[in-house]
Amino acid sequence: MSATILDGNRTAAEIRAEVAEEIRTLSAAGLKPGLAVLLVGNNPASEIYVRGKVKSSEELGIYSEKHTPPTSSSTEELLQLVHDLNRRDEIDGILVQLPLPPQIDSKRVLTAVDPAKDVDGFHPMNVGLLSTQRPALVPCTPAGIMEILKRANIPVAGQEAVVVGRSDIVGKPTAMLLINGNATVTVCHSKTRDLPGVCRRADILVAALGRAGMITPAYVKPGATVIDVGTNQITTRADFDKFFQGNDQREQIFRRKGSTLIGDVDPEVAQVAGAITPVPGGVGPLTIVMLMANTVRAMKLRRASRKAELSRA
Ligand code: NDP
Fold it and tell me: Can 53 be counted among the known catalytic residues?
């Protein structure tokens, strides 16, 4: 039996409509959320991501501006830019597109972002708030994963969840959200012994390791929910045939572009899992829409805290 496909495009469209409604309400009160994106240098993948983020903001009525300092920028120059954006009231969200060029101290730049404007949720203050169950701004991809589960009515409380990957951006915050949702959580990484055996315990398996199709049916308990975060490009015929032989739609894409996207999960897993996110069209579409949601949330949280300060004065 084939797994239920968890359609990320549909979930993202639902959330987008909700965010658009919130923005309309704010706009009726004369308020417009603002997002500043910092893109340093000419990384082609980053340029595509940033274009998508700016376009999405504009479509939703979020004011957005893009800053593109040269690749040769110094840490001090970026810090100055971040400080300027921190001070501007009409900017609610500041997003520093990663990776930054090697001469830049990325941690210093990310930590310089005002936690109240940290729409990526990477600032240690927001990490701490999440881990002490007072989430403020939560990283977009993990927040999107939880929305997929919630909106598909997949129970989290009491379930065995296994997260493969322990990055600060995906693995760790996803594990934290699942813990906060009362799942029993195991986090795996490259040193985990018997990875297939640990994964087979999962009712909810999150694959965020960045290894094309590595999670095969041998890693999956029949009926489990599988969330595939990976975004990997397949560029050789041998790899294509391994995963997609006989798939006409993929064949056309591969012939036209010379590559095709695959997650960390082998497509065969759909024969074992109970529900699965596709790649593309699964977790990916949620990441941008959660950024929009975070920008609106950042605006509301900042206004609320300002109101509280005024009432204390
Ligand atoms: P990182 O490279 O930062 O982290 C990968 C993690 O996977 C590490 O913890 C690593 O372990 C672990 N890992 C790697 N290989 C293995 C292995 N063979 N067995 C077990 N664990 C392994 O990646 P990210 O977290 O940033 O991203 C993960 C994937 O998600 C990537 O494909 C990325 O492109 C994708 N992504 C997709 C997004 C979306 O919107 N769809 C958004 C963000 C990321 P260790 O710590 O021991 O090195």
Answer: yes
